Amino acid sequence: MRVSNYDYPEDEFDVGDDDGPVPVGVHRAQAPRWRSWVPLLAIIIIVPALAWGAVTLFLNGSGSGSSDAASSAQPAQSGQANNQASGGKSAEASKPADDKSADASAKPSASASASASGNVDFNTGVTVSNGTETSGLAKGAGDKLTNGGFTTVEVTPGIYENAEPAKSTVYFSAPENRAAAEEVGKKLGITNVVESAENAQSNPIVVILRDDYKA
């Protein structure tokens, strides 16, 4: 196509396709079709790769945190188990001592009774005989001794027929029974306390009551 009444001479830009080469300067060659797919391909490949990398990084971080928490909890649990075990051993070790002390405090022993009244063994056997015509005198004396702490008191029935002793007497069979015999004399108001294995045969301590005894 030519322009009519064109006052300027023709140059290379006025040449058509039929007259010569394609004009230059104001036209561009058509871009290849594959170039339009490059951005789309980049999005399809790169975006999933970035997402996969982010997920992997997150999972690795979470896994390390859980393992750290588990490792820190394990020593604490083992320490707690050790404390419980040591506490159980300590309780078991102290238990026998506690049981012994409880048994010692619960059971009145002869040594405890002795310490309460000058080494007096209140478990020492005592026999009380009535050498008078007063009925029930020996039983009353036996009740005094029982109420006074002696645990083994026997009252002889009937009347003591021997002539000796002439006055109320507390006999004891051996030196280790002296403290208990003197305690019996104090509780009954008898001052005549004599060591005599011959007269103290039924029990380590034998009491003979005479008319001088005051009930």
TrEMBL record:
Start and end residues of each stretch annotated as Disordered: 1-24, 64-122
Biased composition (Low complexity): 65-94, 103-117
Start-end of Acidic residues biased regions: 8-20
Record keywords: Membrane, Transmembrane, Transmembrane helix
Matching InterPro entries: LytR/CpsA/Psr_C
Protein name: LytR/CpsA/Psr regulator C-terminal domain-containing protein
Superkingdom assignment: Bacteria
Tagged with keyword Repeat: no
